Amino acid sequence: MGYTGRHGEEKRLEEAIDAVAGTEMTLVLGGDGPARERLEERAAENDADVRFLGFLEREQLPAFYSTLDVFIFPSPVETQGLVALEATACGTPVVAVDAGALTDSVIQGETGYRYQQGSIGDCQWAITRCLEEADRLADLCRRRRPMLSVEHSIEQLAVIYDRL
Q1: Do the beta carbons of residue 43 and residue 17 sit within 8 Å?
Q2: CATH number of the structural domain spanning residue 70
Q3: How many domains does the chain have?
Q4: Which of 14, 5, 38 is nearest to 123 (CA)?
Q5: In this structure, what are the phi and psi dihedrals at residue 24, rounded to the nearest 5 degrees?
Q6: Least C-beta-crowded within 10 Å: which of 41, 46, 118, 123?
Q7: Structural domain range at position 92
């Protein structure tokens, strides 16, 4: 399971750490930020298998997403949630908090599962569902790839502007 992005307090990455604590799962965190030291301490205190990779170059992201079984995104403050869409385009289902842009970009049972913010049990349920349905979800994620392209987004914007 993994995440990449800024390690800030608002990202609520401690929920991902708590979700893997006491399990056989490994959490891989790409990126960096002001909360990293606190997150490293929390992982050690909770005996969670967490690997901190540091900053990943843009060229490395498709390979990163593709190697994950699940992309986890616990941040409730996203306005776009591009990393969730990037993971989906790579065929990786997303477990995301049911808030902000993620409510629309993570389609329940198709591109992953959402959970209630702060509920570690809900988060673990969503992770388990993604793992149990891995092949089906990966196929559905890959099928959505054309709808996530820049070209498709531009076409949609053009239609909106034409209506105005």
Answers
A1: yes
A2: 3.40.50.2000
A3: 1
A4: 14
A5: -90, 0
A6: 41
A7: 2-163
Query: pLDDT by residue (tens digit) across 72-119?
Result: 999 999 877 889 999 999 999 999 999 998 998 899 999 999 999 999
SS3 letters across the chain: CEEECCCCHHHCHHHHHHHHCCCCCEEEEECCCCCHHHHHHHHHHCCCEEEEEECCCHHHHHHHHHHCCCEEECCCCCCCCHHHHHHHHCCCCEEEECCCCHHHHCCECCCEEEECCCCHHHHHHHHHHHHHCHHHHHHHHHHHHHHHCHHHHHHHHHHHHHHC
Residue type, 113: Y
Q: Are strands 49-54 and 26-30 parallel, antiparallel or unpaired?
A: parallel
Q: Against a cut of 0.70, is the pTM above it?
A: yes
